[in-house]
Design a protein that fits this description.
mainly alpha, 13 helices, 5% strand, single chain, 44% helix, 3-stranded mixed beta sheet, 339 residues, 3-stranded antiparallel beta sheet
Length: 339
């Protein structure tokens, strides 16, 4: 790319067009593409991993000239990734990055030796190639049994780990939402009810219900309020912490409480499923679906779609409404001897 970006539309077009005498190979085009991404408004994670995904695909099909990549190469990439045990969703991510690369190359890579000058590509070889049937299907997590809940909270663990797991099982928050909590988000409403304020910032999920208040039930004991973060798990380039928290908590505790090696759907995220199930089992009166939506921060399954629910229940419900639901749920596994 030229250092002088120019001021006229033609100058800018000249800068944004990669002029090559011969069709360059995928690896080099991949480098140009990732440089292009650096100035675009995409997530840091996307920028970081785009090159790695492209590099792995080049390893699979070879460093071919750009115009020699065809649809069968896309299929061969998916077959190779499936043989490595990649999930269907992961294979889809690889394909998306390669498809984005070729979409960029369609307009930015031209053959100036042809008369008239032509684009090297006349289409995206990854368009129209579906990922259905490739890779393992996503496996849903399972809630812990009551016995496993008692076992989990009976394990010896640091107080910060116990606190994090206790918040997960009693509030239904996502792991990232808890791991990133700051004391400034801990508040009390006009009735003196405690809650975590996720209404501004700290939104870790692009969901219509994520920006919300989180009611804290009476059974959840918090340490004295302080400053800064409640937990000290590392934070990645995208401002998330669940990768490290999940790895440490799963390996240290959840692997221990599993019945056998087939019982591998029991993870830290399972606690969120536990609270959802407990809310759905409430009777006299039952917990309304829309109130559970705002407790967990996502749309529960039901007759309305997420967008319909958002239109019907346009704003977060009051903390007391949510408190009255979560405070009805008993958590005997949190009771500790001599306390």
């Amino acid at each position: 790319f030229k250092d002088n970006q120019g001021q006229t539309p033609n100058d800018r077009l000249d800068v944004e067009t990669k002029v090559i005498a011969n069709a360059e190979k995928l690896a080099l085009i991949g480098e140009d593409y990732t440089k292009y991404l650096e100035d675009r408004g995409i997530s840091k994670k996307e920028k970081k991993y785009a090159h790695k995904y492209i590099e792995r695909c080049v390893e699979i099909i070879g460093d071919k000239p750009l115009d020699q990549v065809i649809k069968i190469d896309a299929i061969n990439i998916m077959i190779a990734l499936e043989s490595e045990g990649k999930a269907n969703s992961t294979i889809g991510t690889y394909k998306r990055h390669l498809s984005n690369l070729f979409s960029w190359a369609e307009t930015h890579c031209i053959n100036d030796r042809a008369q008239p000058i032509q684009h090297w590509l006349k289409g995206n070889p990854f368009f129209g190639v579906g990922t259905e049937g490739y890779g393992a299907k996503k496996r849903s997590y399972e809630a812990l049994s009551e016995e496993q809940l008692h076992h989990l909270f009976s394990l010896d663990m640091p107080e910060d780990h116990r606190l994090l797991l206790s918040i997960l099982i009693t509030t239904g928050m996502r792991l990232d939402e808890v791991a990133l909590l700051e004391w400034s988000q801990y508040k009390k409403d006009r009735n003196g009810l405690r809650y975590f304020d996720l209404s501004l910032g700290a939104i870790v999920k692009n969901d219509k219900f994520s920006a919300r208040t989180v009611a804290i039930p009476d059974c959840l004991t918090l340490p004295p309020a302080s400053q800064g973060r409640l937990f000290n798990f590392p934070v990645n380039a995208d401002g998330k912490s669940s990768k490290w928290a999940s790895k440490e908590l799963n390996e240290t505790y959840f692997h221990v409480i599993r019945i056998n090696k087939e019982d591998d759907r029991k993870v830290v995220h399972s606690l969120r499923h536990n609270l959802t199930g407990m809310m759905q089992n409430l009777t006299d009166p039952p917990a309304p679906d829309n109130h559970m939506d705002w407790i967990t921060g996502h749309s529960m399954e039901g007759d309305k779609t997420a967008s319909e629910r958002k239109r019907t229940y346009a704003s977060d419900v009051d903390v007391k409404v949510k408190y009255d639901i979560v405070n009805r749920i008993k958590h005997p596994w949190l009771e500790r001897p001599n306390t």
